[in-house]
UniProtKB/TrEMBL annotation:
Keywords: Flavoprotein, FMN, Monooxygenase, Oxidoreductase. Residues 369-388 are annotated as: Disordered. It comes from the Bacteria. It comes from Winogradskya humida. InterPro entries: Luciferase-like_dom, Luciferase-like_sf, SsuD_RutA_monooxygenase. Pfam families: Bac_luciferase. Residues 36-337 form the Luciferase-like domain. This is Luciferase-like domain-containing protein.
Length: 397
């Protein structure tokens, strides 16, 4: 970065909201604690930290061996006044008419805060654990049909029939209605099928953290599909990172080297899905980026993806709060309006992001709205665009 242009890029999102992921107990990749249970005092404390820290949403994840995301989302709704719970839902686990009913119930209980993130399924092995044997392309086709039924269930004024490829029913409805308006539907994935369905039908399209230029190309692809489908409102872009922060860039890199060694050991002892090569395109892309380089742009670090076999969102942003906030703004400038940040020391990181990162990003957004120009945070905290950052990154802990 040789010069800084205060002009707000045309691709920039005008605002940004923050997402976390709710953790049910203190077990982490740094310090795994064998448990499949919910530590209720910890869960309460974690969710309250999100409310206190100014987050806007929290994702309630779903897996074949995890807690149920609908129930935990309801708990989040009861424990908070403002946080919007995002239910991760696999279409194979819940009929769409029932899913619509459950989501609308959550939306009523939280007075309009419910969001759903549909997971078509990236692993045949994981899907089979709950009896789903559809091939991947069919899973996405099922998701497409699922979205149509959700929306009809929330809006049809009279009973309706449906006879599709995956679902058939007679005389359903009128369904139980959401609080005020249809519930936002999020889609993620990097396969061609994910882009086609997400671009044509989703309110939100979700990505893992990638290099800036690569992500912008993917955003253009999603939005191009949306326009071709006749949409005038384009899907919002959600991007996820695992930031590692400390007071200075140098201290953050010392922490990052310590963290990645511990995370690598955790995944070596208990590899996800037996350590097989990932089927999903998102993980394949993450591993490809990691193979090409450990460092990208201002602060994107891919080694965390490499040592975890890209098991889920795993790319990091490393640096001081200012450097990480500037890196997040780089993604806002490329079009992301939803930014998910979740750490490795989960509760401590959630608190620290709320104290030190979120306010910096929001100050910059407020400055842009007030002046019509970018502030100097990105110019003053260069990260990998400066002379010392790469040296910190390659130093041994």
């Amino acid at each position: 970065m040789t010069s800084f242009d205060p002009t707000i890029p045309q691709t920039a999102a005008p605002d940004v909201e923050f997402i976390s992921l709710s953790h049910l107990n203190p077990s982490t990749e740094l310090n795994p604690v064998p448990s499949r249970g919910i530590d209720l005092p910890y869960f309460r404390k974690y969710v309250q930290s999100l409310e206190d820290g100014g987050y806007d949403y929290t994702l309630l994840p779903y897996g074949s061996g995890s807690a149920d995301s609908f129930v935990t989302a309801s708990a989040v709704g009861a424990l908070t006044e403002r946080i919007k719970p995002i239910v991760a839902l696999r279409p194979n686990t819940t009929l769409p008419t029932v899913g619509a009913q459950k989501l609308a119930t959550l939306d009523q209980l939280t007075e309009g805060r419910a969001v759903v993130h549909l997971i078509s399924g990236g692993s045949d092995v994981e899907q089979a654990r709950q009896g789903d044997y559809l091939p991947k392309n069919k899973r996405y086709a099922r998701t497409s049909e699922y979205i149509d039924i959700l929306r009809r269930s929330w809006t049809e004024p009279a009973p309706f029939d449906h006879d599709g490829e995956f679902y058939k029913f007679d005389g359903f409805g009128p369904g139980f209605a959401p609080y005020e308006s249809p519930i936002p539907i999020s889609i993620g994935g990097q396969s061609d099928e994910a882009f086609e369905i997400g671009g044509a039908k989703a309110d939100i399209f979700s990505f893992w953290g990638e290099p800036l230029d690569d992500l912008r190309s993917e955003i253009d692809r999603v939005h191009g599909i949306a326009r071709a489908a006749g949409r005038t409102t384009l899907p919002r872009i959600w991007v996820t990172f695992r930031p590692i922060i400390a007071k200075t860039d140098e201290l953050a890199w010392q922490k990052a080297h310590e963290y990645v060694a511990k995370v690598a050991e955790t995944h070596r002892k208990a590899p996800r899905l037996g350590g097989a090569a990932p089927q999903n395109v998102g993980s394949q892309r993450a591993l490809n980026f990691a193979d090409r380089s450990e460092l990208y742009d201002r602060a994107l670090w891919t080694k965390t993806a490499a040592v975890t076999n890209a098991a889920g969102a795993s790319t990091a942003l490393v640096g001081s709060p200012e450097t990480v906030a500037a890196a997040i703004l780089d993604y806002v400038d490329r079009g992301a309006s939803l930014v998910s940040i979740r750490g490795y020391d989960t509760l401590t990181d959630a608190i620290d992001y709320g104290k030190y990162v979120l306010p910096l990003v929001r100050q910059e957004i407020a400055h842009r709205k007030a002046t019509g120009q970018r502030g100097t945070l990105q110019a003053d905290h260069l990260g990998n665009h400066g002379p010392d950052y790469a040296r910190y990154a390659t130093a041994q802990s």
